[in-house]
Amino acid sequence: MPIERDKSKVDFTKDGNYKFFPDEPLDKLHADKFASKEPSQFYDPCAEASKMSLNCLERNNYDKSACLTYFQAYRDCKKTWQRARKAAAYGASSSSS
């Protein structure tokens, strides 16, 4: 997937769902990859937001205060992912009992 560099063409609010991160942590692809990974492997569905945070730090000479927005976007993405995983686990455990 090519990276869009024209800011006017980037829209993180498609379908009326506002989000502040470029990743799609609820995408079925991430769920499938997470389910098929080995138990000791780490999988991050918010890798793009993570990369953006690190790139911001590099661009700003590791001044964390200049990258707070990127950090928050990564946290929001991870929260979205964690909520979805908890909901799926809760739904699976409650439907099996």
TrEMBL record:
GO biological process: mitochondrial respiratory chain complex IV assembly
Keywords, comma-separated and alphabetical: Disulfide bond, Mitochondrion
Domain of life: Eukaryota
Annotated compartments: Mitochondrion intermembrane space
One of the record's GO cellular component terms: mitochondrial intermembrane space
Entry function: Required for the assembly of cytochrome c oxidase.
Family per record: Belongs to the COX23 family.
Protein name: Cytochrome c oxidase-assembly factor COX23, mitochondrial
Organism of provenance: Sugiyamaella lignohabitans
Upper lineage: Eukaryota, Fungi, Dikarya, Ascomycota, Saccharomycotina
